[in-house]
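# nightly structure sweep
# worker-07 picked up a monomer target from the shared queue
# config: single-sequence mode, recycle default, output format = structure tokens
# input follows
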Amino acid sequence: MDDVTFLQATMTDMPFGNSQFDAVISVSVIHHALRKDIAKTINEVYRILRKNGLFLANLASVSDPRCGVGVMVEPRTFKTPEAYEQRRFEELHHYFTEDEVTKLLICFSKTTVEPMRDRPNYWKVMAVK
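# output follows
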């Protein structure tokens, strides 16, 4: 693949110009942050999407049994012990209500927020700029 460029950036400050993408897809990423950074991320997604661009994401729901586990750092956001391969670490998890997701997406022209069929502890998010 000769025409692929990889880069590392933060989700709150993406190094792209306005209206650059037809779609943005986030799988199990955005809910690993504080609420202020989640709001910044949604604003960045909106900024980099073209008109009628599509945003697809999944976000952890308050119905997730892990909601409330760990040390609360702000409402519905917890620092949770995790283990992956041989490493142990703490990771932020924010758990969303449906209303909270809807309010975060207020700038989009069309939104759908519903439980994921195969993972009902997550919201399936579809939004059009």
